[in-house]
Amino acid sequence: MYEAYWQLSEPPFDNSPNPKFFYLSPEHEEALVRLVYTVRHRKGCGMLTGEYGCGKTTLSRALIQRLEAERYEIGLLTNPSWNAVDFLREALYQLGAESRDKTKSELLHQLNDVFFSNFREGRDTVLIVDEAQLIEDDAVFEELRLLMNFQTDDRFLVTLLLIGSPELRERVRRLKYLDQRITIRYHLNTLDYTHTAAYVTHRLKMAGRGTPIFTEEAIKLIFDFTRGTPREINNLCDVALLVGYTKRVHEVGEKIVAEVIKDQVGIG
Least enclosed by CB within 10 Å: which of 87, 91, 98, 100? Predict the structure, then answer.
């Protein structure tokens, strides 16, 4: 709605996990390097945790983009509120295999066949479980651990990546049988002020805007209110651009950001 006014080719602050808008802060870069290392070196199981809205899902999509499609077969599992059997069916579905009316044992055999078939064809299998803190049934975590048993004499046949909020880290820590299988892990924090400013600039640039829209005072207020959480930065900046458009201003200053914040927190 406001894109043409601000000379943007597309909305810069959508909360969809579009890897085009992925901002590589030092922490996000470190997290991505560790995930790529886990996959390329077949480390078995890696875990990425982080605060809500800090960019974990977008980072997982950036990872997928960096993995060559001809070499990797990737299954992305989201919103994982399954029991153990449903988890196995969903994993097979995401890897392109049908799995109706089969017992858990048959599903495990079929998964092993898929992993081994990919191995013979020179492809690595990767299963990414996003929002893994939503797994309620410990039996699902047990199945995840058991997938690590699918291996040849010298390598794992599947790489598992668990992605979730800090609750996942605490949950896994209590499940020693799984915790001991995780070889690479990283916790993603929110952005500091400098990277909040750079994040806003980056997203505007990716949407076609080469010059600033937000004043320095506005950015400071955005950081103070959002505490550097990308999802909250997106929400605030999006509405601020809309308000700036309706007021026909040439830049978004502290006053407009403060107005949006008042609306968001319900202050009259």
Answer: 100
pTM: 0.91
CA diameter of the chain: 67
Domain covering 26-188, topology? Rossmann fold (3.40.50)
Continuous H helices in the chain: 26-40, 56-66, 84-94, 104-120, 138-147, 166-174, 176-179, 193-206, 216-226, 230-247, 254-265
pLDDT digits (tens, 9 = 90+) for 2-54: 999 999 999 999 999 999 999 999 999 999 999 999 999 999 999 999 999 99
Fold of 191-265: Helicase, Ruva Protein; domain 3 (1.10.8)
Bridge partners for 50 per DSSP: 188
Q: What is the dihedral of CA 73, 60, 42, 167, to 10 degrees?
A: -120
